[in-house]
Structures
1.
Amino acid sequence: MKLKGSKLFSILFIKCPQCHEGKFLERKVYDLSAFTKVRKSCPVCKMNYHMEPSFYYGSMYVAYALGVGLMVGIILLNLLFSSEFSFLRTFWMICVALISLAPLLNAWAKIIWANFFFHFKTEWKSKSK
Ligand SMILES: [Zn+2]
């Protein structure tokens, strides 16, 4: 399966939605000094990542969906693999997972949001010259 060129590649590796080569974030995901700050433009294909002011506010909807998905996943795992369902244990597992994965979920929310609007292009190299 060829992953590069698909939106999944851009999302999993948090790369530019257009060229799949340039970095999308200013710093690494767990570098909390610039909490999932998106670059102004792609360092490789020069695509502007901010098509309008406050563009990434919309990624909050995606972050919410990812958070709910994680919560449902943890509940299902608890129902499947534990002999007795404990509400309190499940609650704390969800809290720990959401807090420890918050930067990653936030970064994925932003790159998924960007992938709604920007698409992979192979012709960006010829245009940029
Ligand atoms: Zn790019």
Note: DSSP finds four helices and no strands in the chain.
2.
Amino acid sequence: MSDDWRASNRVGRIGKSAIHEMTRLSKQVEDVAFLSWAKPTSDTPEHIKQAAIGAIEKGLTAGYSSTSGLPQLQQAIAEKLNSFNRINAEASEIIVTVGAIEGLCAAVMAIIDPGDEVILPTPTYSTHIRQVVIASGKPVLVPLVEEEGFRWDIEATKRAITPRTKAILYCSPSNPTGTVFDEATLRQLSEIALENNLMVITDEAYEFFTFDGHQHFSIGSIPEMRRNTISCFTFTKTYAMTGYRVGYLHAEESLIPQITKAHIPFAICAPVVSQYAALAAIKGDQDCVAKFRDHYLITRDLMCERLDRLSSVFAYVKPGGSYLMFPKILVDGGKTDSSLFCRKLLQEARVSTTPGIAFGPTGESHLRLSFCVSEDEVNKAFDRMEAYFG
Ligand SMILES: Cc1ncc(COP(=O)(O)O)c(C=O)c1O
């Protein structure tokens, strides 16, 4: 709870973000090796930037779009959902949002009443937990089984269901673990959702970044799940468009007016200039996406090789997707205060990482490393860590 009488209990229940705290501290360190941000470090592809500039020059961007987005963008998104995600989507079932984040927030706000429980597999993206709290819902954290490659524990999920459970919220590929939940697991999850009348909210931000034969699967593609799923996506990761703030969600048509009621007070509509850029991204050449993926595969393999050389300090599960991994810290018998560990690593070795505790209690004694950086940056960070850990 906040001790400031001006703040609502709702925001008072939310703690400081360890991710932003590490970013603040990292800025104070000169020539830091930066592995703590989940943000693509590549620039946005040229044809996407030119589309934004062109739209501004043609005078198309001064006003609002429809609250659901530009119709031609909704149409292009529906086509992508049908072809890539196998989601049977119509343009009228799409809301273009301010990144995936606003879509997720609108989804949570639209379906969660105060006291409703939302099951999240942990460790998970901390923003999801905060979104549930800010909607006055109750996050119920179900630990992933790290020893089995961060497997989703379906039996534990069943046991976590109570009469107050309203939804399950997850990201796949996962931030922070890089786990790609496979089709069989998500089919089991859908059975649980259907048996118990639960909504499933997905965050598929890293859908295009999977490796080693892991396939991205959208639970919203299961026909029986149409009424029970809100699927959230983004242009941020796929096209290195972090600052454009544009994403989208899909839900069955009858739910769209309800989600729109939550979307409008936060956003009215997604930035129009960014919607034109997004249109160029989704309709244009997809080579840029393949190049980003190929690069992340190289940096993932490099990071794994470098971690192997530090096997007395870290144990890790090789990520099948995203551009993140979540090694366990072995020093102190696996009972390390991750915030303290990451601060020391920053101050004494000049390597910026994110403490695992930021991703829920089961994240303690871990740290998150991002490989959406150059090979040089990975090598610089690991040269320093090798010197530091001796
Ligand atoms: C799982 C996940 N979802 C969503 C986001 C943010 O997406 P957006 O920029 O589209 O709001 C991030 C950013 O790190 C993320 O890791």
Note: The mean pLDDT is 96.
